[in-house]
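Re: the 241-residue chain
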Amino acid sequence: MKKIIFLLLWLPWLSSAQFKDLVQKATQKVSHPKSVTSPVDVAGGLKEALNRGITNQVTKLTALDGFYKNETVKILMPSELQKVDNTLRQMGMGALADEGIKALNRAAEDAVKEATPIFVSSIQSMSFKDAKLILLGNDTAATTYLKSTTSAALYSKFAPVVQKSIGKVGADQIWASLIKKYNGLPFVSKVNPDITDYVTSKAMEGVFTMIAIEEKNIRGSSVARTTDLLKKVFALQDKKQ
């Protein structure tokens, strides 16, 4: 009877199929009562999964070429500057265009170093309700949660770092030279994009892309669940599919 009461207390956390399954187990002899997944387990499992995404994926972006040599998140010229890239290459100035692209990615690699404390704060404040919705959500629900709770803080942290980094790695001079050469060509429309905003937005996009990759891996592959808590919590997700 005590087991039934325990389950009723956690009813809002469980789907009907999961609840039915646990009720059946509770009315039988249960040799391992601790195997019942609690809200604390669910929240802990989701936090662990997000921490793994940061540790396994986001930190890679902070390394030299973390963006530049990662085709999934590599930052290219803004769409409005694609014509700049194409024209410069046609005029034999491909090396300058390449340096401009590399400078953008170097700035992003610098900025992402500011991300971890913001993510940690968001993960630590995750509620039980958030955790349940994430667990039973789609294959990037945790990433979406992190994006919704950290984007404003990330932008405010990233933008000044990007701006400073653009100067540190010489990107401001490279881009000034690149745009000056392009604007000096005959019959072209003059351009003057906000490079700081563009790189900041692309750096954030890259961060969430890599976290989503890790989340999908954990959700879709039991082999990727390398701890008992991850196995226990994401087994609930497998049942609802």
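DSSP finds eleven helices and no strands in the chain.
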